[in-house]
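Re: the request from the purification team.
They wanted to know what the chain is likely to look like in 3D before they choose a buffer screen. I agreed to run a prediction and write the result into the notebook, where they can find it.
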Amino acid sequence: MVQQENKPVTQIDFARAGVVTSAMEAVAASEGLEPERIREAVARGRIAIPANIHHGSLVPKGVGSTLEGIPLSTKVNVNLGISGDLADASVEWEKVEVALELGADAIMDLSNCGKTRPFRKELIERSPAMIGTVPMYDAIGYLDKALVAITAEDFLDVIRAHAEDGVDFVTVHAGMNRRVIDSFKETGRLANVVSRGGSLIFAWMEATGNENPFYEHYDEVLDILHAHDVTISLGDAMRPGCTYDASDAAQIAELIEIGKLTKRAWDAGVQVMVEGPGHMAFDEIAANMKMEKRLCHNAPFYVLGPLVTDIAPGYDHITAAIGGTMAAASGADFLCYVTPAEHLRLPDAQDVREGLVATKIAAHAADIAKGVVGARDRDNRMSDARRRVDWEEMFALSLDPARARERFESAPPSDEGTCTMCGRMCAMKTVNAIMDGLTVNLDA
């Protein structure tokens, strides 16, 4: 059992002590809810506020729902990072700029090539968005060792470095223990293990014969995270990588283990998010969201997609947005974006833009469906601006104002104030004129 200090450190520590922190106040203000409701939910693990004590530029965001079941707005994450084949930090900074411009709630730095610490530290310094990482990705480059030569203590050192740098949440694949692997081997899969972090841990376990180091040394992991208030995002190493494997024995076996690890983290004063499936047929999504909430004690749920079909490379931001809408409307709290480059290559800045906007559409559509406080307000303002044919206001209210303006200005209308779709037959202008008692003349 992890021994906690008496002095509160994490958001969950403060919440249990009855203290409403500045981060809780900020979340309450942004969500239109009372601070005490946020505090109560943080204390019970229903809301996580990933906010490392070293991340000074952070604008805190809450993930989850209140004890009464009032959902917070669905948050959206962008993945980026330096890759071995395209190791160009300047390209990644372009993606960061796009993510922040379009209002990403979180950025996960998945850099996996060379010494990644300078990029990560600058990202934390500059970003108001939450920063997440997968320390397992960074282990080989950070430690400069072959995978099989890395020790359990080495893995803990990488987590410690990320926590000290100011990372707000880390994905740790602690649920894939020997029991889960035995289930996977016995039942089999079409696509096997598709999680990059999970595959590396699986390879390490098979090569060394040891238990998953993050499971075996889970208490030490929690000690590190508690000291810096890093939220643990319990990664799903056995997430389905194709629709055929969804809801199978390996996925569920790991989810059961993650539920146990969730309670242990809360007991240690560490905030928790649970990560969920990547590929899943549309009709299975709602049941999976409910199952996660049941098995993981209503911890905030963070899903990749899910992608509802496997045959749309080049368009997987759409397959993921379809699944993401259903997932969030059914209880998921946090969506990881998918770009058109998924399954094909490292995304560029344009891919990031398209993937992020598609996922924000999914999140917002779900927020309307599940009755998030104030979710419809922006849509209503947009509708009013359309009625008044106020193009500047319409652009400003758009999820991607630059794209909306670009499309409009690419085909200038001959009738001022209209667009080339309807021109002088614009329904809004016609009805506005009639309502103002004017005569409508559509003659050339």
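For the purification team: Residues 260 and 418 are 59 Å apart (CA to CA).
Please add any questions underneath this entry.
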